[in-house]
Design goal:
The protein contains 17 helices and 22 strands. Bound molecules: adenosine-5'-triphosphate (ATP) and magnesium ion. GO terms for molecular function: ATP binding; ATP hydrolysis activity.
């Protein structure tokens, strides 16, 4: 890619950017939220046309008028937000848009071919499952397989590990190394420097739509990369202990023998007992797919219980793991998204009329406070970069009056500074007396923030430990289902009394 420029109304997303990637190379693209990474890759995969500049593949000048052209030229992209048809099966999604193909007419041969491909790259998948039934990690495997099926020679992955567990990320990295060894050029976008150092050959860093530089991994360090990204040095925040809990404090959120069905008609949560007190962060550790999504949805009131009870004192703020289907209206403006949950109340409304000037002023203030990068508050939320979209949800939820905060994968896709900011905000909420439930597949995040850690495995809480003294090794074993703690040891987690003022929900 040479001297690529792409402008959007009010933003220069890419400014005269040069990028060269060799066959067999894994090339990282780094940069803060809104730096222009996704845009550059959208140009390469034919979603947009550059305003200026050129794209060459194996020396040949290309002009992509649509993603079809780019696919034909051997470019495959696994997007930051997947583009799968929810109601179709895995196999249907993979062949979607293929008008002519060797296996088109024979489902048996298609399946056999997909099995071989999947096996070759250790991508375990049930081809007859429908997309909406899959976890995010599984959906990503579908996207990768789809690109491989179309014989991609250049494979672009936009923050692929953001949605994966450490083990899944390891597996993906093995797959990518394997692909590169066979000559595929891989472009890998990530906010995780450790991963970039472990996996990639070279790194190109973007900042504010411009290329800062390209360096070879053996010749650089995490610190240098971080500095190139933000243009200054950053320091890590330390976790602090919570204020002492008063002995008489009642839990703000209680789950009592809660059981919930998953989408595949299996029991996704099995008799969960959990109590969260004001002023503490309880982290739910676990490998993705062990009931996290169902737990989140049940607490948020988006999924019925099959058994048990839920008690909650006060309002719930919810940072959803899937910000696009649960958190944001992409066709609406940033300002509209920021007031979404309270627009029917004052001060946003008065005598049935929306107070637009008020809403605008409020939105401008939040955009500044939460460092949301956008040309204006009237911009469509769908046009924000991935990380900035997450900041909009975060800003809206944290400014609502709440006593319980449910944060599911709150920093997924956020850059280093934004992650630090979100962590600091969560600790501040806790110190102000909020009961915080953090569901995260990032073990580092769980360890850094939690006052108590519960381990979720196959829908059960198999262990509970103190955050400050948690043993990483034991935590890892529990997450893998290796050491289950007996129920008796967990029994003291259930409070013997229930708050009088709480909202109580039972089997719906
Ligand atoms: N379709 C669009 N319309 C208008 N502006 C856009 C559009 N797509 C991207 N932008 C803007 O271009 C800039 C770069 O966005 P981009 O998505 O490329 O960032 P990014 O580096 O991928 O960030 P992140 O790490 O948050 O995903 C942002 O300011 C974004 O708001
Ligand atoms: Mg992006």
């Amino acid at each position: 890619m040479g001297r690529i420029t792409k402008r959007f109304p009010g933003v220069i997303a890419n400014q005269a950017i040069a990028l060269d990637v060799k066959a067999g190379e894994i090339h990282a693209l780094l940069g803060e939220n809104g730096a222009g990474k996704t845009t550059l890759m959208n140009l390469l995969c034919g979603l947009y046309e550059p305003d200026e500049g050129e794209i060459r593949i194996f020396g040949q000048l290309m002009r992509f008028r649509s993603p079809k052209d780019a696919i034909a030229a051997g470019i495959g992209m696994v997007h930051q937000h997947f583009r799968l048809v929810e109601s179709f099966t895995v196999a249907e999604n993979i062949i979607l848009g293929q008008t002519k193909g060797l296996w088109r007419d024979s489902p048996q041969r298609l399946h056999a071919h997909l099995q071989t491909l999947a096996h070759q790259y250790s991508l375990t998948l049930d081809f007859t499952a429908r997309i909406w039934q899959l976890s995010v990690g599984e959906q990503q495997r579908v996207e990768i397989l789809k690109a491989l099926y179309r014989r991609a020679r250049v494979l672009i992955l936009d923050e692929p590990t953001a949605v994966l567990t450490p083990q899944e990320a390891q597996d993906l990295m093995a797959t990518l190394r394997h692909l590169a060894a066979q000559g595929t050029a891989i472009i890998f976008i990530s906010h995780k420097l450790k991963e970039v150092m472990a996996l990639c050959d070279r790194v190109t860093v973007l900042r504010d739509g411009q290329r800062v530089g390209t360096v070879a991994v053996p010749q650089t360090t995490e610190q240098e990369l971080a500095q190139m990204m933000v243009g200054r040095t950053i320091k890590r925040q330390r976790r602090t202990d919570p204020p002492e809990r008063l002995p008489q404090t009642e839990p703000a959120l209680i789950l009592k023998q809660l059981s919930v069905m998953g989408d595949r008609q299996h029991l996704a949560l099995r008799a969960i007992d959990l109590a969260i007190y004001p002023g503490e962060i309880v982290g739910i550790a676990g490998v993705d797919g062990n009931g996290q999504r169902e737990l989140e949805e049940a607490i948020a009131g988006l999924r019925p219980f099959s058994q048990g009870e839920l008690w909650r004192t006060g309002n719930l703020a919810h940072i959803p793991s899937d910000r696009y289907s649960m958190g944001l209206l992409t066709e609406f403006s940033i300002a509209e998204n920021l007031v979404l949950r309270d627009v029917q109340h004052p001060p946003f409304q008065w005598r049935g009329l929306l107070r637009l000037a008020w809403i605008r002023k409020y939105a401008v203030d939040l955009v500044q406070r939460y460092l949301i990068r956008t040309p204006s508050v009237q911009t469509r939320a769908g046009n924000l970069s991935g990380g900035n979209a997450q900041k909009v949800v975060f800003a809206r939820e944290l400014t609502r009056h709440h006593q319980v905060l449910l944060a599911a994968q709150p920093t997924r896709g956020l850059d280093i500074s934004a992650t630090e900011f979100v962590h600091a905000q969560m600790v501040a909420r806790r110190d102000a007396g909020t009961a915080v439930l953090l569901i995260s597949t990032e073990l580092e995040e769980i360890l850094c923030l939690s006052d108590r850690i519960a381990v979720l495995y196959e829908g059960r809480i198999v262990g509970m430990m103190d955050g400050a003294s948690a043993d990483v090794h034991q935590l890892g074993l529990m997450m893998a289902g290796k050491t289950a703690v007996g129920h008796a040891q967990l029994a003291d987690q259930t409070p013997s009394f229930y708050p009088a003022e709480a909202d109580r929900r039972t089997r719906d």
